[in-house]
Write a structure and sequence with these properties.
The protein is of the alpha+beta class and about 100 residues long. It contains three helices and five strands. The two termini are about 20 Å apart.
Length: about 100
Amino acid sequence: MAWNRIILSHSQIEQEGVLNRLKEQFLKVFMKTADTTDMAVLSDNEYENDRISIYFSPACSPDCDVMIRFYNGMECDPPSRSHTFVLAGDEDVLDTLT
């Protein structure tokens, strides 16, 4: 299983409310999933070039695969612990990052 990343623009977040919808969708899946160990969505701490990356931990698969595809997510390297925070899900996922 791999990390996945979606990239959202400032406009998508502030004007369209995409990040709030994504978080709500994730929490619905999270609450229905039997084993939520290390299942989390993380966010970059800061915008870069008017965009921000949202990361789905490997434990989100397969439960969040449809959501990841919907937002054009792609596999990626694990994010840096010092540059991200848990947006929703298991806070302990940070212990898996360097």
